[in-house]
Amino acid sequence: MSSSTPSAPEPSTPAESAIPEPEATAPASPTDAELTAALGSWLPEQRWFSAKGHTVTGVDVLTRETLATTADLTLVHLLVEVHLEGADSQVFQVPVGVRAEVDEDLEPAVLLRTDGAGGQGGARSGCVVYDGLRDPSVIGLLSDLLATGGTGDVRFLAVPGADLPTGLSGRVLGAEQSNTSVVVGDRFLLKLFRRVAVGVNPDVELHQALGRAESAHVATLRGWIEADVRHDETTLGMMQDFVAGASEGWTAALEAVDAVLAAGDLGAGDFTGEARSLGGAVASVHRDLARVLGTSIAPAAETTAAISARVESALPVVEGLDAALPRVRALIEAAGETAVDTQRIHGDLHLGQVLRTPDLWVLIDFEGEPSRSVDERRTPDSPLRDVAGMVRSVDYAAMSRVVDLPDDAERVAAERLAREWVDRTVTAFLDGYAEEAGRDPRENLALLRAYELDKAVYEAVYEARNRPGWLSIPMHAIERLADG
Ligand SMILES: Nc1ncnc2c1ncn2[C@@H]1O[C@H](COP(=O)(O)OP(=O)(O)O)[C@@H](O)[C@H]1O
Ligand SMILES: O=P(O)(O)O[C@H]1O[C@H](CO)[C@@H](O[C@H]2O[C@H](CO)[C@@H](O)[C@H](O)[C@H]2O)[C@H](O)[C@H]1O
């Protein structure tokens, strides 16, 4: 990919471009001033806007590049810097479509309508600017650029032999998450990172490494999009095979929990077989990452200091966290006595990051926690962090189904059943991991618990900012962990 990842395959040479040349009839472009004014109110409403909870004090267009122009559509790539009160600014990627007018189905994606007044260089007609990733034609243009190799400031690079066809169109995936993923031609999954973290994104780097290891538990990487941001090569997106016919681990786990709660019987939603094979898949991916990218040892004190720092920084954001503080500190201290085996890991593993195909589990989204810097995310860490992430997620799946129940005897019974389901499922997951890894994560229980706590604190901050109705899920987990 770059000088910073020397073993990565070189991108393939661009073929003849399928992107049409600009045409005279293309719609007018908005000015930067129009864009920044509109983005100031539009960005905070987006699910992927990671600066929620901060007041936006200003928006600057950092870079603006027209990527493609057809008769009725201009695709403009924007990197925008959002200035925040009392916090560091954040950079977001916003590819926009510009048309003279849009169909009804694109109305919800509209960011700005100009009336044509205020344009630079004389009169111009009005235009509609909208979130490009909602438009199948825009997705098609991005995919064509990957297939043919875009050579502007935003670079489109295909993995050698990727053999990407042109002329595909796309659709946005239902659920918006930290980033925006679209399906292209029902064959590929194109993900555009929304908050741009300067540097090479671990999602591309680790997919490349696991490709070299021929891991069966990841989708094949086909290409990526990058640009220099503040002089550093920075990943903006990636294209990989779309895993067809797969169900998300989160959905599968919820179905099992629902069956248990509806029947009042653990046997009705047994997830232990799935959890066991999931544990095996995670262990297999860890082994491959260690083999290709190496291992190291870190003093446990470094790990516990980082967890303590996370807890401290969460205190002002998460109301009530301070009540558990002395017990939380004791839990963290207990983990600080041994050295930690480290390697590259997934970094943000949960049930929403695993896909169940008829044959096996596939792990996705190796980006790490989006709120960390790229350097932090690329630092080797204990595989127990991933194990803890999945343990927390099993708890989430069960508790998300009881969190909204009225506070009565029925809820108490449901909670008890849900907790038993969690215990069984977690045990099976850890058994499956131990069997494949040849090493049981429970051998270092104090460290495993410290990572669970770390994740629960991260989740508490995440929920406080994004889903306050679910805040009690990680808060209860913190209480349980703190109580030993
Ligand atoms: N290779 C793939 N094949 C099929 N679906 C995928 C693939 N990768 C991701 N997805 C789907 O896209 C969603 C978002 O992908 P993810 O990488 O987790 O994005 P984010 O960084 O926004 O969390 C996932 O929850 C999953 O349902
Ligand atoms: O969108 P990402 O995949 O990058 O992850 C972020 O959002 C997740 C929520 O979608 C959040 O995960 C938390 O909720 C999940 C259920 O929605 C649950 O499975 C996870 O265990 C829980 O941590 C994740 O932490 C955040 O980084």
Automatic annotation (TrEMBL):
Domain Maltokinase N-terminal cap: 42-135
Annotated pathway: Glycan biosynthesis; glycogen biosynthesis
Cited InterPro entries: Aminoglycoside_PTrfase, Kinase-like_dom_sf, Mak_N_cap
Region Disordered: start-end pairs: 1-32
Keywords: ATP-binding, Carbohydrate metabolism, Glycogen biosynthesis, Glycogen metabolism, Kinase, Nucleotide-binding, Transferase
Methyltransferase in keyword set: no
Catalytic activity of the protein: D-maltose + ATP = alpha-maltose 1-phosphate + ADP + H(+)
Annotated Low complexity bias: 13-32
Family named by the database record: Belongs to the aminoglycoside phosphotransferase family.
Protein name per its UniProtKB record: Maltokinase
Species of the source: Rhodococcoides kroppenstedtii
